[in-house]
Amino acid sequence: MLKENISDIHPVDLADILEELEGDQRLAVFQELETEHASDTLEEVEPRVQRELIHAIEKRHAAQLINAMSPAQAADILAALPTSEADELLLLMDKDRAIKIQKIIDQHDENILLFSTQKFMNVSKSALVGDVIERFHEIARDIDVIMYVYVTDEHRVLEGTVDFRELMAAESDQTLGEIMTENIISLNPQDTLSDAMAMFDRYAFRAIPVTDDENVLLAVVSFRDIHGIKPRIDG
C-alpha cells in the first residue's frame, strides 16, 4: 500500500518529505521507490540527504540510480561525494557514460577565471544615473554582462552593485552611491566552476563578481555562460 501511494508523489514533493524524515525512516521510504522514481527523487533532495542515501544503499543500486540521470546531473551528485566513493560508483556504471561524467567532474575543478569576463560596466559611486544610462546605451553591444553595473573606486575596489532594473527606475540625478547595494556576494579567484555553480544555485543571481582579498574587482561570471557548459559536454 505504501509503495502504491508514494509512486504517485512527484519527486520534488517526495524530496521535501524525505528531507523531513529521520535517517531510518527516510531510507525505508526511499527503498520502496521504483528505479526511475528513486533516481528522479535523488536528484531533488539536498546534497546532505543525497550523500546519506548513497552511503546507506547498496553500491550497485546507487550506481544504477545515478546512471539513469543525465551526465551533468550525475556529475553534480558524484562531485559532492568523497573521491574514493565517487570512483567506486563510476566503476559500476556504464563505461561510456562514466567517462562523460568524469569529464564533467574534472571541469568542476577548473578555476572560475577561465569562465569569467572583463567586459562589464564599472563606474564610480559619484556617477549620475542619467549619465550611466546614456553611457550604457553606447557600450552595451560590447559588454558581456548587462544586467548589473559594478560600482568601484579609483583602485577598482568593489563598493556596490546596481541591478539594471533598479538603474532604470531611479531618478536621473541620483548617484549610483545612493541606489547601489553594498552587501555584495562575490567569488574568489581561487574558486572553481563547482563553487560558482553552488553559489548561483544558492542565491539565484544572474552574474557574480570575482574579487581578490583586497576586494578588487577582477572579473565577472555570468550564469548564462556557465549554465551553457553542461549541454556542450553532454553532447
Reading off the top of the CATH hierarchy, the class of the largest domain is best stated as Alpha Beta
The biggest sheet amounts to: 3 strands, mixed
**What is the CA-CA span between the terminal residues?**
41 Å
Q: Give, in spatial order, the strands making up the sheet with the most strands.
A: 1-2-3
Portion in strands: 5-15%
CATH superfamily of the largest domain: CBS-domain
**Integer average pLDDT:** 88
Q: Which regions have little confidence, pLDDT < 50, spanning 5+ residues?
A: 230-235
Secondary-structure content class: alpha+beta
Number of domain units: 2
Which CATH architecture of the largest domain would you pick? Roll
CATH topology value of the largest domain: CBS-domain
Alpha plus pi helix count: 15
Give the SSE order as H and E letters: HHHHHHHHHEHEEHHHEEHH
Shape: elongated
Q: What Rg do the Cα atoms give?
A: 22 Å
- Count the E strands: 5
Secondary structure: helix percent:
40-55%
Quick overview of this protein structure:
The chain is α+β, with helices and mostly antiparallel strands and 235 residues long. It contains 15 helices and 5 strands. Helix 2 crosses helix 4 and helix 7 packs across helix 9.
